[in-house]
Design brief:
By secondary structure, the protein is α/β, with parallel strands linked by helices. The protein contains nine helices and twelve strands. Strands 3-2-1-4-5-8-9-10-11-12 form a ten-stranded mixed sheet, with helices on both faces. A two-stranded antiparallel sheet has the order 6-7. The radius of gyration is 18 Å and the shape is globular. It starts with a strand and ends in a 7-residue tail after the last strand.
Length: about 290
């Protein structure tokens, strides 16, 4: 077992584990997918069936994963959309146990809270738990620009401010998606990987399509790169290039959901490959 992924699951579409599992498995990576929801689709459709799972059920599933020895062989533990504060507490407890049992395990927290278009879509209690309970245990976090601004308590209108805020948060690697503002050329969007002594930026053209689940897919692709031994910059490049290929195909088809399966080959072997650019260390220093 290489990756444990704790996040939502849907019947239709590609969000949460329904976006993350396939690209990991397609690269030969074993995945233990632990659901936090079982829903018909993501909430932006006119109707929604299913439910957020009970915290006791999620706890039982995670205990079962421990009993099968999955933590011992896990390289990266991912958490994404948690669904409720109660599930967040369960996941926090599991992360602590997992890191105690397997000190080499990396915890990647995708602090799913909202975005610029929708605002917040988790309640205040879960936001506090992410900030105070889960992120302090994380080796890597993957917020979008909106989520990082909330974590930092500031607007972050420039790329320099984004880098400075990322360095103040604490995790060894902070990957920020959807970065725009002063310092990012007009017509482009950047993804930044910020570490204590270096930072990387990958720029892509902005696309018009905005399907749900892009952050979940990005996090999975980035984790896959790390599992395969890529450097932070190389993993960033592969993940950004892969998701750009998916979004290009999604836009070409005029699809509402990500064209994940149709673009699988391009996602796994993206062309063009958007190269990472190293940012001088003093950028973002305050």
């Amino acid at each position: 077992m290489t990756v444990i992924s704790i996040q939502s699951q849907v019947v239709h579409g590609h969000v949460g584990n329904s976006a993350a599992v396939f690209p990991l498995q397609a690269q030969g990576i074993e995945v233990a997918a632990v659901p936090t929801t079982l829903l018909s689709n993501h909430p932006l459709y006119p109707s929604l069936r299913g439910q957020v799972l009970g915290a006791d059920l999620v706890r039982d599933l995670l205990v079962g994963a421990e009993e099968r020895g999955l933590v011992d062989s896990c390289k990266i533990l991912i958490s994404g959309y948690l669904g409720s504060e109660e599930i967040g507490v369960v996941v926090m407890d599991f992360v602590q146990r997992a890191k105690s049992r397997n000190p080499s395990l990396l915890y990647l927290c995708d602090p799913v809270m909202g975005d610029h278009d929708l605002g917040f879509f988790v309640d205040a209690g879960l936001r506090v738990l992410l900030c105070e309970g889960l992120i302090p245990w994380a080796d890597i976090i993957t917020p979008n620009h909106f989520e990082l601004a909330h974590l930092a308590g500031a607007a972050l209108d420039t790329r320099e401010a984004v880098i400075a805020a990322a360095r103040r948060l604490g995790p060894s690697t902070v990957v920020v998606t959807g970065v725009q503002g002063e310092g990012v050329p007009v017509g482009l969007i950047q993804t930044l990987a910020v570490e204590p002594r270096t930072a990387w930026a990958v720029s892509t053209p902005k696309l018009a399509c905005r399907p749900a689940g892009t952050g979940d897919l990005f996090t999975a692709l980035f984790a896959a790169g790390l599992v395969k031994g890529l450097s932070t910059g190389a993993a960033l490049s592969q993940a950004v290039s892969g998701i750009y290929s998916v979004l290009e195909e999604t836009e070409r088809r005029g699809a509402y959901e990500m064209a994940l399966i149709a673009s699988a080959e391009r996602m796994l072997h993206p062309e063009p490959l958007f190269e990472p650019v190293q940012i001088p260390f003093n950028a973002g220093i305050r």
